[in-house]
Amino acid sequence: MIEGPPRDRASGRWVWLVLPVVLGVVVLFVTSTTVGTCYDSADPAATHCDSGPMLGVAGVWVAWGAWALVAALCVSRAVRRRS
Description:
The protein is of the alpha+beta class. The chain contains two helices and two strands.
């Protein structure tokens, strides 16, 4: 097996710090996208539109909760001391 040059301990830390940022952007995009429908009627008073987040309100909470757990894991991996 061919061994490469020794890796610096700090070289892998940036991955653990960038990962939650990238995942946060993805979760933000998914949770801020809205969908809606409009119902037209001959009677103007009966016409209405509904809209909301693509994942639903519960899905938004689950997505951001999962992101918070992953972000905490990533930050803890980035700052822990290796012996």
